[in-house]
Amino acid sequence: MTDIVDQQTRSRMMSGIRGKNTKPELALRRALHARGFRFRLHSGKVHGRPDLFLPKHRAAVFVHGCFWHRHEGCRYATVPATRPEFWRTKFDANVARDNAVRTRLLEGGWRVATVWECALRKPERLNNVVRIFEEWLLGTEGQIEIGATA
Name one Pfam family in it (predicted). Predict the structure, then answer.
């Protein structure tokens, strides 16, 4: 199946998709800051440019969109009907890069948290996400994933 819009239109549409300062990321940042957590944003000094990192806790936080990063079992991780082979290739590359970044950070002594967009979609879930994150941050586990079931 071919694309339903021309290449220029598709390029314009794709360029409008933000990689930083997304709504879920901003919601998490506000909630964490309100709880007293201090963090840095999108630093190139940390491998993979995490959305947030907390140097005091040596923790990197990624706020992943369920669609782009393929949140397994999530209803938002759909595959578009147009050009499904293209999308699968793109998604596979995203997941492989995410895994490589996570592995390198863990091997480098960092702790890694992945907070999925679906966990931050409803405001009433945000406090629970922050509570789980805080427990993890003050604990000893190396990594955590927080999704809508949190």
Answer: Vsr
Question: Residue 2 has what pLDDT?
Answer: 61
Pick the CATH number of 17-146 from 3.30.720.200, 3.40.960.10, 3.30.365.10, 2.40.30.10: 3.40.960.10
Q: Is residue 1's pLDDT more than 60?
A: no
The pair phi, psi for residue 102, each rounded to 5°, is -60, -45
Degrees (nearest 5) of the Cα angle 19, 110, 53? 40
Average pLDDT score over residue span 99-107: 96
- Euclidean distance between CA atoms 124 and 122, whole angstroms: 5
For 28, 37, 47, 142, the CA distances from 56, given in Å and listed in that order, are 18, 10, 17, 15
Question: By the 8 A CB rule, do 57 and 80 touch?
Answer: no
